[in-house]
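Extended Data, record Pyruvate kinase
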Amino acid sequence: MHSSPLLLEEPIRMASILEPSKPTFFPAMTKIVGTLGPKSRSVDIISHCLDAGMSVARFDFSWGDPEYHQETLENLRVAIKSTKKLCAVMLDTVGPELQIENKTDHPITLEADTLVVLTPDQNKEASSNLLPLNFTGLSKAVKKGDTIFIGKYLFTGSETASVWLEVSEVEGEDVTCLVKNTATLSGSLFTVHVSQIHIDLPTLADKDKEVISTWGVQNNIDFLSLYTRHVEDIRHAREFLSKLGDLKQTHIYAKIENIEGMKHFDEILREADGIILARGNLGIELPPEKVFLFQKAAIYKCNMVGKPVVVTRVVDSMTDNLRPTRAEATDVANAVLDGSDAILLGAETLRGQYPVETISIVGKICAEAEKVHNQDLYFKKAVKYVGEPMSHLESIASSAVHFWVALLMLFGLFL
């Protein structure tokens, strides 16, 4: 039986698998992006996150005000200084996200086989019978039988924090839906996802522009995470950043999370500085059996053109548990073997009970996968894909990388 071409050619010894993992002198090459929030914003916790392997801090502006995020960022700076660890800053924009505001702040329970109305009238109060939406075009975009998902987290079909609706009637601007599973929606804001429809809202909302031009400029952000459907989204964002002066060097990472982004992936990849595969929404947008195909194809394309690719939603269960599931651990490793450059943690570090442990475990899995990743094969595939002789500078860079990889492997033998 032949081993996967992704793995090193020599067989993996069972004895080495049974040996306990040893702390390595060098951290995993795969970067870890941690989202900072209520459970991970103190100087102490951030310091531990940095020591555990976090190298990018993500600030999600779909919740919280700039003052709150500024306090967190100041704590990050203190932690960076004390730990002497480098950490970049990523600003994540809201974009054209459909949302339901629950002004009462009381949990809303939706019972299976009952009806609920989605209305654009935001003056009405959210209840188990009626949910006000921040979008007036829903009734024109959906038809009877379409599916709508509401909740904060990845929908699995068995959880009680997200709800699956089926459109039963469209009347005027209101959409009446049949509730397919009993769920309780808690908090003040619920995210709405409608599969495979165009949301006629701007990619950079006014709120996004204000945050970027104030908080973003003030803190000289390194990365902008942008919900992207078309290549024009990247161009408009880059033009906006260039006008701000201080953010000309900010890298724009395209978040691909729906069918539109997938259809225009190649041209988006050419324009973006990097790609984020937002698997939470992709898992709803696509049939489950298709998600891995897009992930592998997208990562391969990013690798071949030399642009970073980030994979999200890998260890969701660690939001409430100290260990990932077997499937999640394997998922992280396979993302690395596919060629992912970074793993992005969301709820696991934002509001999860074990942010430090999550970063540590994900880092260990990445390091183990990197040990058996066939770097030489990937290099040859990349050179073949480019299909032309290297420039002088590329040749020097390639030789330098080969030298350091060989040196690190040799050094690792004596640790």
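Summary. The chain has 15 helices and 17 strands.
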